[in-house]
Amino acid sequence: MRIMKILFKNRRILFLSFNKNNYSTAPKYLATLRIGEKEYRTDEYTNITPKILSYLNRNLHLKKDNPLSLVRQRIVNYFYSSFTHGGNPIFSVYDNVSPVVSTKQNFDDLLIPEDHPSRAKSDCYYINSTTLLRAHMTAHQSELLRAGLDNFLMIGDVYRRDEIDSTHFPVFHQIDAVRSQRKEQLFENHPDLDIFEPSFDRTNPHAYTNSISNPIKQSCHTLEATKLMEAQLKNHLIGMVRVLFGEDIKYRWVDAYFPFTHPSWELEIYYEKNWMETLGCGIVRNEILANAGPNNTIAYAFGIGLERLAMALYKIPDIRLVWSTDSGFLAQFQNKNANANIVYKPVSIYPQCTNDLSFWLPPTTTIDTFTNNDFYDLVRDIGGDIIEQVKLKDKFIHPKTKKHSLCYSIVYRHLERTLTQAEVNKIHKEIEDAATKAFNIVVR
User: Fold this and answer.
1) Which residues are 290's β-sheet partners?
2) DSSP-H helix ranges across 83-222
């Protein structure tokens, strides 16, 4: 099968096509990249790969026989039943929004500083310097607020460059939510109380410099408003966790930092003898609300990963399984009630094959400047979903030559059949050849 590997040269994308383990000698330079029906210009930021593009529009969270869809439905049902007005749910759901977003949506609208590490090319899949695949569903928060929405759930696939193991995948799924309230809603029984401090001019909110130096609240908010929103937020999320994991689940709150909320917390649950981070949440920064429209509300927000919940609820041992099309896997979730107690049963257990790859870095690269995620993407592009794990096994600097060397351990395992060592060796050699050409390394 022909695969396209993206490299970079002179600010243009260089597509080196290779068939099996042989690179083409005729590279093509493309100034644009087509995603769906739209073409995007490319530049030095472009690092999205064909393998990642192949995951677009899969919408696992909407596939009724997928465990992610069951978890999604349970959470949506909880919010539908818990928040109603006149018998109708007050939360709206957006679960089919394009994952292509601007850097403004993904970062600037959320007050993420320009030097924040989450913006790095090593962390995100960039289409170009101003466009990327969303790294979180929160990227759609400001546009929905500007549309006049007060309470909404955003559900979809998000993309982050990351390590490779049984719990990490470059694509995963999130539910993000916002609930905002006006003064008369929040203080229905206490009209003398207010959301904002007397010094805050809501007619000109941009003239007010909001501070988050106080760990308890934002400077624009009253303590009463902050504490009431915090109590609501935590009660609502504890209720959701109890619906998922049972009334007796142990939990704890941990103070956290997110650029777009203050104060912020993470919720951990005690699950199978370990504390497991479940979600992040907090009070939405008032600047975000002010930039989105009328500044007369206070809001909370949270974000939660569906894969982590599904793997815990259904005892799924490997995150790659949620992408499986194997009937033996899907049948276990087919035509099931969202609240059904399902425990995944392995169809078969296939052995691992592990090969190491050691190489010398080029003279201009050190073990500290080499980007692991670049190597991980290359390995995944060539090996596909039979790559179970890639671990940095060893770093070495030669005492005399001062050459820098890295050694990675690559674990291969097919989810549906036994791999032979011969076919693993063949793929491993393709990875060696591709890495040699891509990174100018010398295999040891």
Assistant:
1) none
2) 103-106, 141-146, 183-186
The strands making up 250-258's β-sheet, listed across from edge to edge, are: 92-94, 151-159, 171-182, 297-305, 274-284, 261-271, 250-258
339, HSE (Cβ side, Cα atoms, 13 Å): 7
Q: What is the C-alpha separation between 360 and 443, in angstroms, rounded?
A: 6
Q: Domain residue spans in the chain?
A: 60-314, 351-443
Q: Residue 444: beta bridge partners?
A: none
Q: Which of 301, 53, 325, 38 is nearest to 153 (CA)?
A: 301
Topology classification of domain 351-443: Alpha-Beta Plaits (3.30.70)
- Tokens 């026989």 sit on residue: 65
- Cis bond leading into 317, ω under 30°? no
What tokens were used for 326? 């194997």
Burial 8-35 (b: 16+ CB within 10 A, else e): eeeebbebbebeeeebeeeeeeeeebeb
What single DSSP character describes residue 362? Answer: P
Q: What confidence score (pLDDT) does residue 8 get?
A: 40
Per-residue pLDDT tens for 371-380?
Answer: 999 999 999 9
Measure CA 356 to chain center: 28
Q: H or E element: which one contains 433?
A: helix 421-439
Q: What is the distance between the alpha carbons of residues 14 and 24, in angstroms, rounded to a whole number?
A: 12
Tell me, rounded to whole angstroms, the distance of Cα 266 from its chain centroid: 16
In angstroms, the CA 49 to CA 364 distance is 24
Angstrom distance (rounded) from CA 122 to CA 370: 10
pLDDT at 237: 98
**% of the chain residues with pLDDT over 90:** 82
Average pLDDT (179-202) is 94
Query: Rounded to an integer, what distance in angstroms lies between the CA atom of residue 106 and that of residue 108?
Result: 7
Say what the pTM is: 0.86
Residue 239, strand partner residues: none
| Residues facing 256 on adjacent strands | 264
What confidence tens digit (pLDDT) does each residue in 146-187 have? 999 999 999 999 999 999 999 999 999 999 999 999 999 999
Q: What is the CATH number of domain 60-314?
A: 3.30.930.10
Contact 257, 285 (CB under 8 A): no
Task: Tell me the residue type at 421.
Answer: Q
**Range 241-248 contact pairs with CB under 8 angstroms and sequence separation of 24 or more:** 241/267, 241/269, 241/278, 243/74, 243/78, 244/71, 244/74, 244/75, 244/309, 244/313, 245/269, 245/271, 245/312, 245/313
At a CB cut-off of 8 Å and minimum separation 6, what does 281 contact? Answer: 233, 237, 261, 264, 265, 266, 267, 300, 301, 302, 303
**426-436 residue pLDDT tens:** 999 999 999 99
